[in-house]
Write a structure and sequence with these properties.
- There is one protein chain.
- It contains nine helices and five strands; from the N terminus they run βαββαβααααααβα.
- By secondary structure, the protein is of the alpha+beta class.
- A five-stranded mixed beta sheet has the order 2-3-1-4-5, with helices on both faces.
- It is globular.
- This is Transposase.
């Protein structure tokens, strides 16, 4: 079966997952995480991608970003994957593939879903039982977004910026949304949309994106969407 074309649009947030091949580990030491983050920062600037949230787990990666050009996200992930694989193979004297293949992604509706994606990404280590609080895990953007830790490349999305008038106020408001768990239905929606390369949002958002791209962006019958009269 042919792979579905990616659903990408400049200026629309994108949730990305990239997994290790056969769920194998991708990171083996602190230096590996640091190398990946440094490369991400450089390539995000090069390809015009604003990074809003991230989480580097042992065997997979989550990113929430907004590309400023159509090809930006693809070029970023291609370059990042190549640089990191070369680094790992050189460092650990190994050969062969590291990643599962193509990264998975979904366009994210700003209203009601962007902050949910932030939380989904930064709560990964808690759901995995690695820590009890997201701030206890070093390799996410939580400390930048919720605790004001300086970051050279985390760029707040407009929805995040609307949480308050200053850094401290925004961070406090952001921390407050972590008091409640994400509903399991929403977690499953984020996962299925990302794994299926669909859009994450309501039906109106899906219809608008389908009309712009002229192709299916949610599960259902294939074919070009009908014109709206």
């Amino acid at each position: 079966m042919a792979r579905r074309p990616r659903v990408l649009l400049p200026g629309i947030p994108l949730h990305i997952i990239q997994r290790g091949n056969n769920l194998s580990a991708c990171f083996y030491s602190d230096e590996d995480y640091i190398f990946y983050i440094d490369a991400l920062a450089v390539l995000a600037q090069l390809y015009g991608c604003k990074i809003h949230a991230l989480c580097l787990m042992t065997n997979h990666v989550h990113l929430l970003l907004t590309p400023t050009c159509y090809a930006g996200a693809g070029l970023l992930m291609q370059g990042l994957g190549q640089r990191y694989v070369q680094y790992v193979n050189r460092t650990y004297q190994r050969t062969g593939t590291l990643w599962e293949g193509r990264f998975r992604s979904c366009l994210v509706q700003q209203e009601n879903y962007v902050l949910a994606c932030y939380r989904y990404i930064e709560m990964n280590p808690v759901r995995a039982g690695m820590v009890t609080h997201p701030g206890d895990y070093r390799w996410t953007s939580y400390r930048a977004n919720a605790q004001g830790e300086l970051s050279g490349f985390i760029s707040p999305h407009a929805v995040y910026s609307e949480l308050g008038s200053g850094t401290a106020q925004r961070a406090e408001a952001y921390r407050s949304i972590f008091k409640d768990r994400l509903p399991s239905v929403l977690i499953e929606q984020i996962r299925s949309s990302t794994n299926g390369n669909y859009v994450l949002g309501d039906q109106k958002f899906a219809s608008e994106i389908a009309e712009i791209l002229g192709k299916r962006v949610s599960p259902g019958a294939s074919g070009r969407p009908k014109s709206v009269s």
